C-alpha cells in the first residue's frame, strides 16, 4: 500500500503556480466548494469541516472567507505545504493545521463535512484508496457530505481528455518538453479510476451514491454522504 504522496522542495515551492497550469479550471472548481458545502451545512451554523490533503491552503482560505462560523481542520503530511498554508492563514482564526495523516486524527472527534481535493489520484487502487476513504468516513457524522475532486477516468475516454489537456497546454505556448514530461507523469505515475470504481469504493467505505457536480477534462468532482 502507498498511503502518502509527499510534496517537498521545488514541487512544494511552485505548487500554487503549477496546479493552475495543469488543472486549468482549478480556481473555478475551488470557487464552487464553499457554496456547495453551504448548501449542505448552512452558512451561519457552527460546523466542523475536515480538509484532507489541505496542501498550501486554497480550500481553507475560501471556506474561511465564506463562513465566519465554520471551524476548519486541515491535515496534510507535507511540512512544506503546511508552512505555505500557515503563511496565507496567519490573519485568520477558526482553523487548525495538522501535519500528518487522517489516521493521526482522533476517532472520537466527528466532523460535519470533509473535503479531499486532488489527493486520491496519488494512491493506487490496491487498498490504499479504500483505506483513506474508510478513515475519513470513520471521522464524519452520519449524513456528513464528502466533497472529492480528482483526476479520473479510464480507457479511451481518459486518453481523449488527456489529449485535450495536452493540446490546451501546447496552445498556451508552454515548452513542449515540459508538457510532454507532465502528461507522461500523469499517464505513468498517477492512479485515476473510473466513476464506477469510485462509486464502489465510496460505498464500501460507508458513503452513499456519489453525485458528480463538475467535470473539466481529466478532473471530476463528486459529493457523497456518510451513511452510518
Ligand atoms: C495536489 S496537492 C492538493 C492540495 C490542495 N488540496 C489543493 O487542491 O490545492 C495534494 C496534497 O495531498 C497531500 N497528501 C498526499 N498524500 C496524502 C494522504 N495520504 N493524506 C492526506 N494528504 C495527502 C500532499 O502532501 C499534498 O499537499
UniProtKB/TrEMBL annotation:
Keyword check for Methyltransferase: yes
MF GO annotations: methyltransferase activity
GO process annotations (BP): methylation
Keywords on record: Methyltransferase, Transferase
A Pfam family it matches: Methyltransf_12
Matches recorded under Gene3D superfamilies: Vaccinia Virus protein VP39
CDD domains: AdoMet_MTases
Domain annotation Methyltransferase type: ranges: 50-145
InterPro entries membership: Methyltransf_12, SAM-dependent_MTases_sf
Protein's recorded name: Class I SAM-dependent methyltransferase
Organism: Dyadobacter pollutisoli
